[in-house]
Batch of 4 targets.
Target 1
Amino acid sequence: MVMTDLFSSLDGAYSLLIWFPSVLALFLYFSQVYGSALPSALCSLGASVWKNGTLNRYNPFTLLLNVLFMLLILTNLMGLTPMMYTLSSDLFTMSGLALVVWVLVLMSGWIYSPTQSAAHLLPQGAPLGLAPFLVLIETISISIRPLTLTVRLMANISAGHIVLGLLANSLTAIMGSIMMLPMLGLSIGYMLFEFFVALIQAYIFTLLVSLYQAEHP
C-alpha cells in the first residue's frame, strides 16, 4: 500500500485528469506568449551550459553535453506521462549514467594531461605538511561526484512525483464534491510546475557535468 501511494502518479486512472489539462494549458501558454521562440529558448539554455563550462562548439565534449541534455529532458518529461515508468527516479539508471559521464570526464583529463590532473589534487600554495590530507580530501570530493549527481536528480524528481501522487489520491477521494474543482486546479498548477522542474533539473545536471569537465585540462 505504501509503494502504491508513493508512485500512484504513474496510474493512468486519475493522472490523465491532471496530465491532459496541464499539457493543454502549457501548449496554449507557450504558443501564445513565445510562439516559435521556444526552440530558440532551449538552444539558448543549452548554449549557456557550454559557456559556463568554458566549452566551445569545436570541443568533442560538447556533443556529449548535447546528447545528455536532451536525454535528461526527454526522460524527465516522460516520467510525467501517465503509465510511464520514471527512469529519472531509478537508482541504477541514473547512477549508471552519472558514473559513465564521470569516468569519461576523469579519463580525458588523466590521459591527455596527467601532470596537470595530478596537480589539481593539491591547491596552489598549500603547506607541504597538509599536502597528504588535502589530496585525500580532494580525491574523496571528486570520487563522490557521481553520487551527488544521482541523488540531486533523483530526489527532486521523486519528490515531485510523490506530491503528484498525494494530490491525485486526494482528488479521487473528493470526486464529485464541492472541493473537487479547487483541488483539480491545484493539481494542474503543480503539474505545470513539475514540467519546469524537469527542464531545470536536466539543465543543472548538464551544467554540473560541464563544470566538472572544465576543471580538468
Note: Confidence is low (pLDDT under 50) at residues 1-18.
Target 2
Amino acid sequence: MSDTATGWVLYLLECTDGSLYAGITNDLPRRMQAHASGRGARYTRSHPPRRVIGTKPFPDRAAASRAEWAIKQLPRARKAAFLQE
C-alpha cells in the first residue's frame, strides 16, 4: 500500500450480524472493496460488512495502529463515540 495525501484512516464497520469491526487503511474505497469481495480481513469473510459507521484520519500508520488497538479495548457502546473525539 502506498501512502495517500490523506494519510491513514481508522474505520469502524457494522457487519450483517450486527457485530462491529475496526481496521486501518490508507485507501478506504479499495479496502472496502476487498472486504466486500471476501479478500479483506478473515473476520469480515465470515461477517460481511453492512456499512461504515465512521472514520477518523491519522497522519501515519503508527498512530492509526495505536488508535485501532485503543478502539478494540472499548465496550461496544463507546466505539462510535471514539471516532468523534
Note: The chain has four helices and three strands.
Target 3
Amino acid sequence: MSLQIFDILQLEIMKDAKVLSGSKLITETVVKWVSAIEMPVENFVRKNEFVLTTAIGCGHSLEEFEKFVKDVINSEASALAVALGRYIYEIPKEVIEMAEKNNFIIIELPWEVRFSSVIEAVMVKLNHVSNEESRRSEKVQQELLNLILKEADLACISTYLNEHLGFPVIITDQTGTIHAQSKEIPNLLENWKGYVVKGIIPAMKSVSLSPHDPMIQKIQKIKIEEHCIVQLPVIQVSGNTQNYLFVILASDIILDSFLTQNTVNVLEHAVTTIALWFSRKNAVEETKIKLHASFINELINGEYNSWEQANSRAEIIGYNLKLPYLCIIGAPENLKELFKKRKLTVEAYQQWADSMIHYIKEEIFYAAQALNKEVMITYHEEKLLVFLEHSLDSKNESITNFLDLVDRRMRNLLPNVIISWGIGNYNEGITGFKESYQNAKIALNIGRNKKGIGHRVMYENTRIDRLLLNLFQNPDMKEIIMSTIEPLVEYNIQRNLDLIETISTYNYYQGNVSQTARALFLHRQSLLYRLRKIEELTGLSLVDPDDLFLLDLSIKTWKMGC
C-alpha cells in the first residue's frame, strides 16, 4: 500500500486544484513526504516528496521560475503544487512543456488554500499508510518467526518469500552454493555454478542503490542474460556476511518500482529470518566439519592405539573404518593466479578460495559416490586429504578410474584449476592411515619436484626417486652432489643460461648431439659450446662414463632434494 498523487487530489482541501502537466502519472506516482519550500532548492527536497510553493523568490522572472522548477524535477520530487495569485499569476507554457517532457506533475492551487491545511491532510494520509505498512510488516515478521519456531526447512521460507514478493528467490551460503529455491528457473540454475566460479555471483563490489535507505544500501543488482538479480547479504551476529538472498526479476523490471516500502520490509525480515535459520544450522555443521577434520588429523598423526578406539570414534561421525582405505593428497596449485584474473578486491580472495575448495570437495565426493566408494575428505594445510575406499583385488585401477572421473568433472566446472595428486599405498592396521598419508605426501612432493605441477604420482612408482632422496639426505653424498651441481646453478643465476636442462636433455638422448640440439631448438655449434662450458665448470668429461654417471646422478638427486 502506498499514497499516490491521485489520493491527494481526492482530498477536500484539494477540490479546486488543477493538474497542468503529467496527468497520466497521477495514479502511479508515489508520495512519501510533503513540504512547503521556496527558492533555492539545493538539497532540501527529497525523492518522492510532494512540494508546495508560492514561487516568492522568482520575482516574476520566467528564467528564475523555470530554474526553480527544474531543480525540483532534478530532486526527484513527486509533484510541485504552485499557489497562484500573489507572486505568480499563471504557470508559463514553457514551464508546463518542460514538465511534460520530464514526466513531471505540476498542480495549480488557488491562493486561498492554506499550505498548513494541505500538509496536515497529506500527513494524515501518510500516517495511515505508514500504520498499514507497519501492521503488514509485523504480520510478515511474525509469520517468518513462526516458521523458524516450527523448524521449517529453508525451502518453506523461500516459498513463503516467493508468495509475498511475487518473484522466485534463491538462498545460498557465502560461497554461492544454493541451499534453497522457491521454484525452478531452468536457464539460470543450469549455469549457476559457472557464474559462481567466474566471480559473477555473488557480486563482491559494493554499489549502493540508495544514499538514504540503509536497507537498500545493502542491495546489489546483477544483470545476467534475461534476468535482473537482486542480491541481499545475510549478515550474522558476528557482523560477517555468511549467506545471500537472491530475488530473480525479469531484466525489463525497473528496480525502483520493485523496491516499494512493503517489499523492503519483507526483505528486511527475510534476511533476519534466514540469518537465524543458518545460525542454528551452521552451529551443527561447523561442529560436524570440525569433528571430521579432527578425526582425520588424528588418523594421519597416528593418535589411535587400537581399532576399537578408532572405530568407536568413527561410528559417531558416520565413517566406516572396517573398509580398506588409501590416502590421496590433492594440492590446488593456481588459485591465487586465477583469482587475480577476476580483478576482484583482495579482501574477497578467502571467500572465493573457500568456494573453490567447496566445489572441488563436492566433485571428489560425487566421483566417489558414482563409483560406489566410501570416502573421507578434509582440507588440511592448503591440501585436500582424501581417504578413498580401496579395492584390494583391482590394484590401482580403481584409483585411476576415480581420479579420471574427478578430472573430467573438474574440466567441466573448473577447467583452469590445476591440481597435483600424490597417491599413497594401502597399509594394513590402524597405523596404516598414517603410513598411507606419509606415502601420499612423499609422492606429491616427488611429483612436483620431478614433473612440475598438475601431475599425479603413485608412491609405489617412486622407488628410484626415494632412493635419490635418501642419498641427498646423507651429509657426505650431499657434499659431493652440491660440489658437482653448484657451478651450473651459479652460472644459470649469473648468465640466465640453464646448463642443467642442457645436460639432462643430452643424457636423455644418450649423447646424440643432433637430437639434443633439435629438442632444445639450438644450432649444433651452440650446443657444443654449452657442453664444453659444462665440462669447464664441473671439471668432468662428458665422454668419461663415470663422470657422466656422477653428473647425471647429481642432477637427479639435486632435483629431488631442492
Note: DSSP finds 20 helices and 17 strands in the chain.
Target 4
Amino acid sequence: MAVNARQSAPPPTFLGAGAKTRKKVGSLCSSCSPSFGSEDQAPEFVRGKLLSELSTWGIGGAARLFVEVRNREQLVSSIRHCREHNLKFLALGKGSNCLFDDRGFDGCVILSRINDMHENGCGRYRVGSGYPFNLLGIHTSKQGFGGLEFASGIPGTVGGAVFMNAGADGQETIEVLEAVEFVDTNGQTRELLKKQGELACSYRKSPFQGMPDLGAILSATFQLQPCPLSRDRQRDYLARRKQTQPVNERSAGCVFRNPGKGCQSAGALIEAVGLKGLRIGGAKVSELHANFLINTGGAKASDVLSLISVIKDRVRAESGIQLEQEVRYIPY
C-alpha cells in the first residue's frame, strides 16, 4: 500500500481482521444512506475485526468497525459515511508497515481491495491501490520493463508503496511514478502529477504523509522503460532478499530508516551495538537482519515499542545517531 484517522477533523494516517456484527453501510446510521450504485455492491461493515489478522506483524486489538472495499465507489462512499458521522477512519492496504495498538482502533478500518490494472503495452500501468506491490514487480519484469524489479520482495500494496515511497536495491517508487489518484476527507477525488511537480518525494517520504486532507489513495500510474535484463534482475533481488532477511518470520519489514550518506545502515548500527537477538516479551531483533523486529509468538505492540525504545537509546548513546522509525504506529 497506506488513510485517515478522523474525528473532529484530526490529521489523516495512511498505511499497505470477535464476535462479528455485519451491517450494510446504509443501515449503520438511520440518518444516512450512502450510494454505491446497487444494493449488491454495498460493502458490509463488521464490528470487532481483529487487526492482528490484517497485519504482517500479527499484532493489534479489535477495530470498532471494519469494511472491505473493492472499487473506488465503495471507498469514496465509505469515507463520506465516516465523515458525515464524525467517525475516525484508517485506510489500509496489507498492513505491512504499521504497528496497531494492543487495544485496537476506535474507529473504522477501511481495507482496500481495489486491485484493477490497466496497461497500454508500452510500459505504462495504472494500478489500483490494493494491488499487491510484489506481484506488480514480478508482472512488469516478466513483460520486459524495468524500474520495479525491487518491488517483488516488498510485501505491501501499491497504495502503501506510494505513500511510503518504498524502495530497495537502489530503486525507489518515485522514479517510475507518473500520477496518483486519491480521495480526500470530503470524499472528492483528486490527482497529483509528477510532470507538474506535485510528486516531490525523498527517502521513504512522499507528499501524502503530510497531507492533512488525505482520505485514501485510489490508484497510481507508472511509466517503465524496456529492459531486457529486468526479469533476471528481479530474480536476483528476490533471491538476495531471501538470503539476508527473515522473510518467513512475522515482521513489518525494516523498522528504521537508514540514516543517510556517510553513515552505516540502520541494521549495521543496531548490530554494531550488540542488539541482534535481543528480546522483549514476544518481540525480538532478528538475528538475520537487525533492522527487522519479529513476532516470535504472542508479541504485543507494547513489546515492540519497548524494543524500539531500547534500540534508539543504545544506538544514540554509542554512535550519536538518532534512528528514525519507518514503521508507523497506529494509536487506539
Note: The longest helix spans residues 301-319.
